[in-house]
């Protein structure tokens, strides 16, 4: 970098949350720079399901999700990435799951046969179709959005680590950047840059095991079983207690590994298979094969056949008691993170709200 340069907004982190801030700011005609220590979009934003699950949330998450939905629909044609609006199919394969769906009353109720006519799953007793949910290809959407923003004048400084922040100045591994406002959107790595903020908000890491398998012809993302204990619209029902007890009795490993039984097919026909969750201040570098075996077994049971696994990987997101971190540790500095693993669903809307407040 040359000498000191000046911007309206400097963003640290080029994941969906950082990109959301850059998009909202450039939309308002502001001069924006984004720094990321990686060589491209490489964090949680490319490692997820690409599921934009608007309907399954309540409260603040729902507010950000509704706005995020509008923003994905606006960005996709402009930035030229794949987005579809297939909704989500929640599949019930036990009476307890049926009771959760009935009580939640979310979406259109389906019979078991309706479900099995729509998707190649076995053993469905019923389901709920949530029509408003969107889907992107996580490996494409973030990078395409970054390229689009670069074309609109946002400056990206890749392989540039942020070292420290003060009002009006961002210190990086390639020099200092002057900006009226600075947004730190570094996901779980808040503790590396602003440890006090991380400690105050109880930020931990949540590490997830994920797999990619040969596709099964799934036109709509599907979730089932223990996934219903994860999304507030279902987890908040009284029937969720009975479902949890049944899973605890029959397959406690699902709760021990906090499994999200979710499946989403990418545009190339490969199937994203998820996922386990392990929380702590640091992430174990050693991924447990038993976790992948469990995910394979569950997928086999869901689709009635063994799936060929093509890839395995780990994703990490920030986790905290509150759903969102939105801190203002200094004048003009904001620290923003989605701390529940729903950043694709809520991140763009959250970022838009932060930029509206800053400018
Ligand atoms: C396996 C998995 C499945 C998921 N599925 C879904 C889903 O289907 N739907 C959904 O809504 N959400 C899902 N999520 C959650 C979602 O992916 C995250 O909430 C979201 O991507 C977080 O975005 P981010 O921008 O905060 O983080 P990231 O994408 O991780 O970006 C943070 C960036 O900050 C950079 N950075 C960190 N420190 C510094 C520094 N000091 N200097 C410069 N750069 C720095 C990193 O290099 C990184 O690029 C999933 C997450 C995982 C891991």
UniProtKB/TrEMBL annotation:
Record keyword Protease present: no
Protein keywords: Flavoprotein, Oxidoreductase
Cofactor(s) needed for function: FAD
One Pfam entry name: DAO
Signal sequence coordinates: none
PANTHER family: D-AMINO ACID DEHYDROGENASE (PTHR13847:SF286), SARCOSINE DEHYDROGENASE-RELATED (PTHR13847)
Protein name (record): TIGR03364 family FAD-dependent oxidoreductase
Species annotation: Microbacterium marinilacus
